[in-house]
Design brief:
635 residues, alpha/beta
Length: 635
């Protein structure tokens, strides 16, 4: 299609409508969205339409900022928002759905998109990847030792029955929001990047049929790299193709291989993900200006992944892993992604350049860029919390098992788990664990003896903390008698990409000392959820034993977004006024945790830190940005 035609028609946007919760098809204008018969273009009301999409994940954005982030995307020239639904975020417990609390009300987010004149690409999974824990699949499924994920119904009915339950629950909520019913949802994605995982087109068709049978008839699309979709033919009947990392040339390649199927660049990466322990935040050198110019010149459809990344609050960050034991790379808490819109919602270094490219190719002026959200800093001052509680004085009633089992076997999704046993005729020696997922601290009769890290940590830090890498055995100190052995395990992000998806947390199989397996375990689930933190017993019986909670109360002069600077701490979790900001770790590159202004109060804010290693508090500061500026580093 010629550029002039696309420029005229791409200005089409939905009526700015705020749909009430009970809205039905008759209350709003219906539209038709589909594909040209020859697959050459997308059609809105039978006219060619360019999708200019930016990806936003409501689960990663404070609810109070949803509208601001949508408006930031619109001001950059987007007319569509791509939305992942994280299945495990709305069904943490089997059969119990929550589409209302915190950042889970995806229909409210979609209605906000409509109210701001934006269309929506819905990406409901069931698997989404997204650098999110287990790629969005609920970990309760992992209690089945032989579970298979992302497979057709006949291969594992337990997995597929759970998917069906999820599809039914979500469909009821999004049906009124489909474009054919007067809503903003143009297309629904079937699964995600399945071509990088398998080639079972029957599975994809079964997923598609689930949506259809629940009143979501499409239009559909899939998402894959060009090589994967060519090799595995992971397209669905009547569905479009979204290309991962796609550009104008790859769209042409997809059209050549699948001439009757429309194609778009479904994931264009203006930044990239970052793992703990990497030397710097990834994606800083990424520049998609050339790709954007190609899309705008050719009137081609695209989605920027991410236009704004947001934050992996709590324990929701995912990971990459090659196998059970090694090559494990957990993702940092920030999902800034070096996206055009920063984690804090500000215009990043390339935002205005991208806005100029898009704005210069559309007929109407772009809306003004929203004002930035105010920030709060402590202006170089630091504050030191005090220890107020100990993990060891807050243990729940134990469960018992002959051999240690992962947390999923006990119905726990995330957090920490403590394993305890008595050792007869102790004399020290090598402690071998198969396997630690993902970070463990070890104690003999209450004294810290070292630890295990599934993710590789620098040699100097490993030596200082006596922590082993690569699941190597830990040498316990000499001694005698029958001491108590405690192994406290932190479950970090579950694998979200590749074939190692079944990534259970805690101790997976066995513990041996000097070659003899240890049995007779007490297991203490420690989910570290809001209820656990709110009901901590304020007592520290042994202040020299790592596993302490520290508390800081502080006032803020002016409410604003801030970053809690944990650069002087070792490894742990931070809560502010009951909100879990996520993990910090001295190996970096992230040392500051985002705390949005709506989670703060002017008077008496409470900050709680749980550190796995420190028994002495370190100073904490408040900064305006994720990374320190040159001036801050020079102080």
């Amino acid at each position: 299609m010629r550029r002039r035609q696309f420029l005229v028609l791409s200005a089409l946007t939905p009526v700015a409508m705020a749909l009430p919760a009970t809205a039905g098809a008759s209350e709003t204008a219906r539209h038709r969205f589909g594909f040209a018969a020859d697959g050459s273009t997308f059609l809105l009301d039978d006219k060619p339409f360019q999708i200019r999409s930016g990806e936003l994940h409501p689960a990663r954005i404070p609810v109070e900022y949803w509208r601001h982030r949508i408006r930031m995307a619109k001001a950059m020239g987007m007319n569509t928002i791509a939305v992942y639904v994280m299945w495990n975020y709305v069904e943490e417990r089997e059969g119990v759905f929550d589409f209302e609390t915190e950042r889970r009300d995806v229909t409210a987010f979609i209605r906000l998109c409509a109210a701001e004149g934006m269309w929506v690409l819905l990406r409901p999974g069931p698997y989404v990847c997204a650098e999110w824990d287990l790629g969005g699949i609920p970990p309760y499924l992992l209690r089945h030792k032989d579970i298979k994920l992302r497979v057709r119904r006949a291969e594992d009915p337990r997995y597929f029955a759970a998917v069906q339950r999820y599809a039914e629950a979500l469909s009821r909520r999004v049906r009124p929001l489909l474009v054919a019913n007067g809503g903003p949802i143009l297309m629904v994605q079937v699964e995600n990047e399945y071509g990088s995982y398998g080639s079972d087109t029957t599975y994809l068709e079964e997923i598609r049929q689930l949506w259809i049978s629940n009143g979501v008839p499409g239009p559909f699309y899939t998402q894959d790299g060009l090589a994967q979709v060519r090799q595995n033919h992971t397209v669905v009947t009547g569905g479009a193709i979204g290309l991962s990392g796609g550009d104008a040339a790859q769209i042409a390649g997809a059209r050549q291989s699948f001439p009757d199927v429309p194609a778009m660049a479904g994931e264009v990466y203006p930044g990239w993900l970052t793992h703990w322990g990497e030397p710097a935040f990834a994606g800083k050198d990424s520049d998609v200006s050339a790709q954007l110019k190609g899309f705008m010149t050719g009137g081609l459809s695209f989605n920027l992944y991410m236009i704004h990344g947001g934050t992996n609050f709590g324990f929701w960050a995912g990971a990459n892993a090659r196998d059970d034991s090694g090559a494990y790379q957990p993702d940092i808490t920030s999902y800034d992604y070096n996206a055009p819109i920063t984690e804090q919602g500000a215009a990043g270094p390339r935002y205005h350049a991208y806005r100029s490219i898009v704005g210069g190719a559309v007929p109407d002026p772009l809306p003004p860029v929203p004002a930035p959200v105010p920030t709060y800093t402590s202006e170089g001052r630091t504050f030191t919390p005090t220890p107020f509680a100990s993990l060891w004085d807050n243990l729940p009633a134990p469960l018992r098992s002959s051999r240690p089992q992962p947390m999923e076997a006990h119905g726990q999704n995330s957090g920490f788990v403590l394993y305890r046993t008595k050792i007869d005729r102790y004399s020290g020696g090598k402690l071998d664990i198969r396997w630690v997922h993902d970070y463990a601290t070890v104690f003999v009769d209450g004294r810290y003896a070292g630890g295990f890290s599934r993710a590789r940590i620098p040699a100097a830090l490993a030596t200082r903390l006596n922590v082993t890498n690569d699941n190597l055995p830990l040498t316990l100190p000499p001694g005698s008698g029958s001491p108590t052995l405690d192994i406290a395990v932190e479950g970090m992000g579950r694998t979200n990409f590749g074939h190692a998806l079944v990534d259970r947390k805690g101790i997976l199989e066995s513990v041996s000392l000097r070659g003899a397996e240890l049995t007779g375990w007490e297991v203490f689930p420690l989910p570290m959820d809001s209820k656990f933190i709110e009901t901590l017993r304020t007592h520290v019986s042994d202040p020299g034993r790592p596993g302490l909670f520290f508390r800081l109360t502080f006032d803020v002069s002016t409410l604003g977004d801030t970053y809690v600077d944990m650069s002087r701490w070792t490894k742990g979790v931070v809560w502010v006024n009951g909100h879990n900001l996520g993990r910090y770790w001295t190996i970096g590159p992230q040392h500051r945790l985002f705390c949005p202004a709506p989670w703060l109060r002017r008077d008496r804010n409470e900050l709680v830190v749980f550190d796995l290693h420190q028994t002495t508090a370190s100073p904490i500061g408040f900064a305006a940005t994720l990374a320190a500026s040159e001036a801050e580093r020079a102080r």
